[in-house]
Amino acid sequence: MTPTVPVTPAPGRLAPVGLPRLLLGGPDPARPMPLAEHLERHGGFLLRGFGGDRGPTMLIDAVERAGLTGHGGAGFPTARKMRAVAGRRRPVVVVNAAEGEPASGKDALLMRIRPHLVLDGAVLAADAVGAREVIVALHTGPSSAQAAVNERKAAGLDPVAIKVVHVPKEYVASEESALVRFLSGAPALPTFTPPRPFERGVNGRSTLVQNAETLAHLALIARHGDQWFRSVGTPDAPGSLLVTVAGAVQRPGVYELALGMPLSAAFDAAGGLSEPIQAVLVGGYFGAWLPAETALRVQLTPADLIAAGAALGAGVLLALPASACGLAESQRVASWLASQSAGQCGPCTLGLPAIAEDLALLSRSGNTTNVRNRLERRLRLVEGRGACHHPDGTARFVASALQTFAADLARHRRGNPCPSTRHPVLPLPDDPVGP
Amino acid sequence: MTVRLRVNPIMCQAHGICAELLPELISLDEWGYPLLDPQPVPAALMAHARRAVADCPTLALMLTEDPGK
Asked: What is the pTM assigned to this prediction?
């Protein structure tokens, strides 16, 4: 039986009502919020210390009651991850801000404009599990994260050491086990599990890997409590989330929404659709395509999206214009995903290029029945057969393309492919999408 | 307690010896990598399963025990 101790509200600060929460303080996307202004807006936070007099797991209990789950893609309950690390010998907290998903920009934006909210969450999580060390992992680039860490150091704010580490750009590098391996001084390649990071992580130490956005939510739960966190969202899917809205919308960008809102609210937030759409890519390149009519009606909760055949993933919502070819777009991304295999596991190394090639044949109206059957067999064949979920995610993406663009497949087969008159819509690194 | 086959896909180099020694539970995919029967290893095949594990040249094949959940 866990005691339910109420979490003290942020000293002298009223909790924000409604949204935005994480993006509180104005929509200036270019300006990192300085420490003083951040503390002025959100209030300070209390560190209680693992094993402290208010109960060793007070914050973890609050996070559990809040129902916070990971915003990096897998949606794992945050409190359960924290409990697995709490009290182990010399644990480490890793902030995963190395957004591998090319279509996602929310963690990069958060690190750029609200670095202190993420760092608060990391320090609070470290305190709650008994860690003295935080590592912020992000891709190389202009680092307001390092500037924010320096600012906190100068202010003497944190009792834990915070280190910023730049990780390689490869898609699988931000996968949890690859990240842990890289931070231990080895190449950023996924490892066979178990052991999982909580058992043996960075340099063999128990490691809590949390997505940047997840920690920002945690920083607010620590200040305002779990009841406040649940004051937006639904009972089963509480809180808010950051979504990256892209494709055929007026103002592509990162927006904060309450969970349980209709997916169409994300497009409204982005100024509405800029042209008619045929489908929405939900979650990212490990996600799934939904036909437009399904997508615009679905609610943004994990359960509703799973029922519709998709998943929230990293919160990418990409509107595919009616004038684009979903097959050609998907084939381009599938080839890229195949190229991003770490090359460690045979079924992934050999299977993903074969899948991408099959999809290319289909989208060029090749020998459809045979190729289609072979492709469907290969999609089933690679699933669950890598050390990480790269083959599974790729297979899910391609399978959803076959389903959502079934009418296009039939048309391509009749020798009537889509006119390729427009630039690709789905973004890939080093291959910019056109107007 | 049930015993199942598991393969470390990073270590597996598609020698295919396991499928020869234990065709009842292991087949090979089109690239020569093993497909394992997810069911618990039946007692009657346990000796063959151990042999397949022992003879894997890259030590990628293993038997895992999960206490019945």
From this structure: 0.91
